[in-house]
Amino acid sequence: MTESDLSRVGAPLPAPALSVRGLGPAEVTVADLTAGGGALLLFVSEECPTSAMALRRLGPLCGAWQEAGLTATAVFEDPLEVAVRVARRLGWQAGVAAEDPPYRTSRAYRLVSVPTAVLVDRAGTIAGTVTGWDHAALVALIGRAGALLGAELAIPEATEPRLKPGCSSKAAIDPELAAAISVQAGTDDVEEMFERGWTDGLPVVPPTPDRVEAMLGSCDGRVSLGPVPPDMGEATLERVAACAVLAGCRPAYFPVVVAAAQAALDPAFNLHGQAVTTQPAGQLVVVNGPVREAIGLNSGMGALGPGFRANLTIGRALRLLVTLTGGGMPGRLDRATQGQMGKVGFCVAENEEVSPWEPLHVERGFRPGQSVVTLIGSDAPLSISDHRSRTPEDLAWILAWAAASAWSTNWWPLEEPSVFVICPEHAAMFRAAGWTKQQLRRFMFDAVHKPAAELRRGETTPFVHAAGPAAQVPKWASPDSIVLIVAGGEAGRYSAVLGPCTGMGSQIVSREVGSPWPLTT
Amino acid sequence: MAADYVSPFDERVRAAEPLAPRPASISGRRVMLLDIRKNRGAEFLDRIETLLQAAGAATARTTKEIFSKPAALALIGDITGQADLVVEALAD
Amino acid sequence: MHDLVHLERRGIPAVGIATAPFADEAIEQARRLGMPGARMVYIPHPVQLLTDDELNARADAVFPDVLAALTGGWSDGSPGGTATARTK
Q: Hey, which end of chain B has fewer CB within 10 Å, N or C?
């Protein structure tokens, strides 16, 4: 690789025409580049460490070279935007150009490897080439350029390594293959994610450094939210951002993802228990406040289903944090017997606008104008149809009794929360009757009672066991176990209830969506 | 090397994936020599190939399209159909 | 390293050969890919300027480790395989 053909005898070769993209609209020609007296073309590739070294070491010299009449251009065998980014990162401020496959220019210049430095004189003939990083040969080449220009040109310092081979030029492979590979690159990335086990079974967005950087915004990626159970992988913001990218989030969603992660990692939530249990529970994320509209969260028609990027990807980002960073992967540490689709992700925005009541976050002590996420360990939704109740009492009775078998038909009472998602039409009935949330809650609690004798089939709670056969046993330990939110479209009379995750002391945890940003502590 | 993705995993705690089980010897096995097309790699593998054959292995050669990218999964698939063992060289 | 990991996942024992300066990067890559035990053997750097005889000698020197990596005779003491850069 250290060949230099400065001493080659024979007719000087004309420098082949350039077929490259420059930064401006005008075509990049050899004549333009040599107008000042001479041109140095430095063929490089993004993936080549020796190319990077050459750009770093020669970059600082280009300014002085330009003044003496030598125009330096880095010709990348990469897309233009990659070339610009890499050049900027390496401090190369001279000319940048880029070649597309099948790299005709590299081929025309007979490149075998990159980096290759080609000196072209004013007449457009090649005055010398150096392949790879060869300090001595480069000094000779620059000396040759200086002789052409009648100037003394700065040379790179003789730092180690003074000799380093380059990498194969992309022109060195078959052109059709090169074209085919550049097309395939996208599909290979998607398969690579599956190959590495970085998915939840669905395709993910590969977390390239650029995407993760964009997701982080001004956040410090090194800040950690703490260990994620069950593996206890550290949830650095960089990893949380990687999960958000994988999930398909937009950067605008990231503050909500972080707040959800913070809430989920609160010890009171007991994410560990949820991540390894045989129960099907997932982590329900309820979002309140102005952030809903700001990022396009859906709280109307289809609120519990697919169709809206913010809802689906935010829920998914949290779950990827648990399954990847936390290692809570189904079939491995996640032992859910059947699981449920909410474990792909479940993010619900409350329809505060049509709700007759204060929203969930206000109930929990936040101001209406605050944006808040609330995490609840929850089962899959059970649909509750009611099309014919004419009184709030009848409707409340129907809603409450739908939940009688949530978790279990007779393991009563339950302390852990059941979450009722009341559709707007159902909520309207309570509005018309002037019922507060507390009244509804109280009614529902009172409605669902059974005599202990009827609850002694199969497993029996100590409470039921100790009670007299006629004693009335409530479904819920208290009305506080009934959580009420409003969501859904304004036409249709289907509400839903999500059963609890039980027996692990999991508390509902709310967290304000971070402000101010960036998160640095 | 090509810029990699940002991993969501904390490698310090991630359970290691197991390697494929090893045969007791290479005698009679098919070894694929995967050339990543860097300089001197082909000659280096020539010598390794000779040594493998002397040790009783059947050998075959193949190359990667672009040294710096992971081999296309199609190539990996082809190799698994054709070989019992793989030697990949020479990263320089 | 990606290739080695892909192959191992498919049940194909594999070994990569690189020059010694690659060791740090290879170990890091193997960890990031979830397979810290992926096997590499190393020869001294550089190789570009070696004569054919010298290059063959490198191959000869590392061959026992190549065999060990592919068969049962490897001790997984250190993560990412053993850096067996011979000095000859």
A: N
